[in-house]
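Troubleshooting: if your tokenizer reports a length mismatch, compare your output against this known-good record of 283 residues.
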Amino acid sequence: MKDYFCGWYFKCQSDRRTLAVIPSVHISGGKKSCSVQLISDDEAWNAGFPFEDFSEAKDGFNICVNGNRFGKSGMSLDLNAPGCRAKGCVRFGKLSPIRYDIMGPFRFLPFMECRHSVLSMEHTVTGNVRINGTDYRFDDGVGYIEGDRGRSFPKEYAWAQCNFGDGSVMLSVADIPVGLLRFTGVIAVVMWRGKEYRLATYLGGRAVKIKNGEIVIRQGGAVLTARLLERRERALLAPENGAMSRTIRESASCRASFRFRQGTHTLFSFDTSRASFEYEYPY
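Known-good structure output:
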């Protein structure tokens, strides 16, 4: 049995609070398990369960981990784990999928240690989740959904995501092994005023800067920049050869700046306190 993991990232955000919930299943050395992680503006929690507590519908996108349910229409939590009592339900509005697989032709390559997916760039979120006595209420909040599967997270990578006024953006740069060689791969999607823009290695995109929390991706005349302005990191578990044995750091909601330029025209440039950011490069 091959080492393997598969996880989904459900981000819910209101004007006041951010909550991301990450159900996942993992296989390492023949041992199977599943888990639910939660990360907020200030804290993070992890609850592990036997593999038998995981189920996934064969028709459609519906996941269940120990009675906690996740799908395209919403999620319901009833989690009672050491240090974390979470209960509630949120409903999702119409999802905003991207035009085609974010991995492009790379999804067919057998050597990829991690394959990314984007299920919705933006949708409404309504409902409430109470965690350890604190309410995370979403009244027409905003959501984002993505997923990962494979063996391990990249050795070095950065990821950022933000929903804002007229659009949403996600980007990732990562160290990709190819036999004895390695290269830096990039994927990014910008949804801006109803139009989708994509930058990716398979389209000629490349990272021209990854330094001091700043990421710059260039593709022809298009330049996308994300810069981490404040580190509000919390520890999360990430896969390494299928096992959730690696610790990464994520800021679920932090200060960052984003800029997107096409030739001499800047489509947007702003600072925000609502960005999500992971920066697993030397700072």
